[in-house]
Amino acid sequence: EFFHYQGAGYLILFRIFEQIVPHTKSFNFMDIGCGKGRPVFVGESYGYENLTGIDLDEELIAIANTNLKSYSIKRKTSNIHFIHANALEHNYKNEPNVYFLFNPFNEEILKKVLERIQNSTNAETWFVYMKPKYSEVFAIDKLIPVHCCNKKIFPAVKKNFLQNQFPVLFVKVEKRCRFLRFEETEQAPDY
């Protein structure tokens, strides 16, 4: 059901946050399947102030909390929390949020988590899905329209907020080139 721990690389996270922070800095940031907490710490360094990491693995949450004790908070107003929780049962807030997922679940669990989030909020919501193994889940029954974002199409993504649609940033890491490729497409990308 749930996938093994895999940490996101710093350079990739820097590129992601450079793309999304200018549009979502005032949002809450939540890493679902946070592991040791790296995206949460990088998110705080880029300006998010209310950050939460949730994970089902108690050992990884303990490591994340240990990392938090040694982490140097970048702003006094920042709040970082790591919670041992099941993403299927977590109470998601009806507030503007960026949800970060590094492929933490199988297709069935991912669909249920997304439905739970969608049913709990009317607020502006963004998803960052790294290594999008099940990206088609975001388009099932048109529950959440799919957008692959880059600098050129952020205005189009912002326009969709007016229609209560949730933008999704799919991040594919090109192994041989070690860079991110952001694409615009009408369909969920096939990767």
Structure notes:
30% of the residues lie in helices and 20% in strands. With 191 residues, the protein is of the alpha/beta class. Strands 3-2-1-4-5-6-7 form a 7-stranded mixed sheet, with helices on one face. Strand 4, helix 4 and strand 5 form a beta-alpha-beta unit. Helix 1 crosses helix 2. The C terminus is likely disordered.
SSE blueprint:
Blueprint: H1 10-24, E1 28-32, H2 38-45, E2 50-55, H3 58-70, E3 79-84, E4 97-101, H4 107-120, E5 125-130, H5 154-161, E6 168-174, E7 179-181
Parallel strand pairs: 1-2, 1-4, 2-3, 4-5, 5-6
Antiparallel strand pairs: 6-7
- Strand tally: 7
Major β-sheet strand ordering: 3-2-1-4-5-6-7
Q: Which band does the percent of strand residues land in?
A: 15-25%
The structure class reads alpha/beta
How would you state the average pLDDT, rounded? 76
The geometry reads as: globular
Biggest sheet layout:
7 strands, mixed
- Low-confidence region ranges: 140-165, 172-191
Report the helical percentage: 25-40%
Question: How many distinct helices?
Answer: 5
Q: Report the span from N to C terminus.
A: 20 Å
